[in-house]
Amino acid sequence: MLKTLSISNYALIDQLMMQPSPGLSMITGETGAGKSIMLGAVGLLLGNRSDTKVLLHEDKKCVVEGVFDIKEYGLQHFFEENELDYEESCIIRREISPGGKSRSFVNDTPVLLDALKSLGARLMDVHSQHDTLQLGEGAYQLSLVDAFSQTETYLLTYQSAFKEYKKAKKLFEELKQKAIDLQKEADFNQFQLDELSALSLVAGEQSELESDQEILENAEEIKLKINEMLGLFQDEQFGLIQSAGQVQQGMLSLERLAHKFSTLRERFQSVLIELKDLEDTLGDEESKVEVDFEKLDQIRDRLSKIYQLQKKHGVNSVEELMEIESQLADKVFQFQNLDESLAEAEKTYQASESKMLEAGKLLSEKRQSCFRDFEQAIEGLLVGLGMENAKVRFERKEINPSHNGLDEVELLFSANKGGQLQPLKKVASGGEFSRLLFAIKYLMADKMALPTLIFDEIDTGISGEVALQMVRMMKEIAENHQVICITHLPQVAAKGELHYFVFKDNSSEKTISKIKLLSSEERVQELAKMIAGSNPSASAVQSAKELLMN
Description:
Elements: E1 2-10, E2 13-18, E3 24-29, H1 35-45, E4 62-69, H2 76-81, E5 89-96, E6 102-106, E7 109-111, H3 113-123, E8 124-128, H4 138-149, H5 152-197, H6 205-217, H7 219-234, H8 240-257, H9 262-288, H10 293-313, H11 318-369, H12 371-384, E9 391-402, E10 405-414, E11 422-423, H13 424-427, H14 430-444, E12 452-456, H15 464-477, E13 483-486, H16 490-493, E14 498-505, E15 512-517, H17 520-532, H18 538-549
Parallel strand pairs: 3-13, 3-14, 8-12, 12-13
Antiparallel strand pairs: 1-2, 1-4, 4-5, 5-6, 6-7, 9-10, 10-11, 14-15
């Protein structure tokens, strides 16, 4: 529900603010006074395009702002999807700078125009003779059928089944494609896997093999060098161990002569122990080193195979080769077991399709069961709106499953007796189209949460009892929905809870449009002028009072 509308620096409007009734508000004014300009400004809140031509003062920005009460509209999900702060009192603002840049805000958060358009459609519905294209759209007509036939439970059941069907279908198709891809690769993958598996790779073996290869390739020289060093250690006259023993005796003598040399003796004792350990280690290493050309050839052969596979797969370690082997094993396993997975996926897909089609069939039957009642209800209302020969029919065509079911619905219409029923876009004039949509929205008023309805001179071309019937229907809609009606008929304007008057003010350098909420006395005078012209007679004033009383 629109609580407040404010417009500044837009076309002929300098500053304008209105607070429409929660029920039925009327707007009147002379032709060209600015009523259509107001609708243009409202269109900015609905996401319509703009340009700098709308600026009254070219050096100032234009601001259009609407404050809406949205607690009944269930829009929390929309706000979550668009990462907006949800408040029951929602502020939509549109700004156009002198440079032509347009900015949109929801609760002071900048939003894209598409998001604003989506939100605006949920909050306001402008209905005029020149803006009824929505009724000609199949998706909108289907939503009307759903609202009239109360298919919400059926639709939700179908949509849940449709979601599962799409999910199962996607999985099945992905597996089918995977099978095709794996089939192409299967032989090659198996060959590569066999090649890697044949080596029985072990993590860390490459560095060990390379170390063994290095020793075996230099075994003779290594043994020679070790024996030379052992000779230096073990020579009975000049060896390191013999000399170190002599030094040790000297250290003991020094320690006996002066206690301060005990530290030197202990340090040398550690050196001696280390020397003997080195001697033992060299001996052990010498015994381990063997000249084994057969083993060397085996190591060279294995490393060659490892290096070849590393080059082939573009890696540098055995561990990476083992990871590739694991991946290839997974692919081979998947291919070998794909038939079973594919059969299971196909079974699930077919079961979900059957469930979805069954739910779609029930939804379709529910929709079609209301066609005649809906048609008769519309035709009955059109009689009261001066179209006694009007006929409507819903034509249904089965389509491939979609989010909204298996149905495509088209509303056929004829305004004249004996006329051929045809799609709306081909047969309805502006006035006929407008009254048809008005009748449908009247029927929908107690079946769905309608946004704020703005009726823009839909009473053009009608008068008398038809006009009274239309305003009576508006009042009924306004019992549960906010309605704003721009009208030129006094009998319609008299039925609003509030009456706003749009007028031109020529007192300054530029003509500007203004709006004012009429008091009771001002309202009588305005209705009298609508009846009899700018200088209404006493009888016109009396007629205006009677219109307000009835």
